[in-house]
Amino acid sequence: MNKNKCSWPGEDRLMIVYHDEEWGVPVHDDRTLFEYMILDAFQAGLSWNTVLKKRENFRKAFDNFTPEKIAKYGEKDYNRLLTDAGIIRNRAKINAAISNAQRFLEIQKEFGSFDKYIWQFTNGKTKTNKFKNLSEIPAKSSESDEMSKDLIKRGFKFVGSTICYAFMQAAGMVNDHLVNCSCYKRINDLIDRPS
Predict the structure, then answer these.
(1) How many domains does the chain have?
(2) What is the pLDDT of residues 140-168, one digit of tens each?
(3) 102-108: which pairs have CB atoms within 8 A and are 24 or more residues apart?
């Protein structure tokens, strides 16, 4: 185990690559933000490793997470997803993915982009934490509470505060890499760089 890395990816190659290259890197692309939102909803009650292993299957099954396509899914698509062994076959989560795609498009229309809407919860900036141990990392925050409340009000499903916080971590709205992790400084350098 590399002492200059967070320990949560363990020895799993997929988890290590995700940790090193994606987790905590600020995302402003609407399609990627939508992908994170859908995957985090499917993760509810499961490990991230389970979802990550099925990610490519999810991309195929859900039209590469194109919200415009998913928003139009009907009964035929729903049944296709329900019988797809490559993804997590959960009725409520599949329904939520379709419904959330419709709500996502509504937000894009209202704010010009989902990015503009979602990043308002951290005032458009990455919140940098200074955790030394995994046990210090919270499951939720006041920002994720606010985000959850607003998303629920707008009709989103599977967007509790814990899911929203996981989304914030993935999308780089918070930097929760441990301070001794090599990714911590790299992400801080990235967010401090003038655009």
Answers:
(1) 1
(2) 999 999 999 999 999 999 999 999 999 99
(3) 102/71, 103/151, 103/154, 103/155, 103/156, 104/34, 104/37, 104/67, 104/71, 105/67, 105/68, 105/71, 106/154, 107/154, 108/30, 108/67
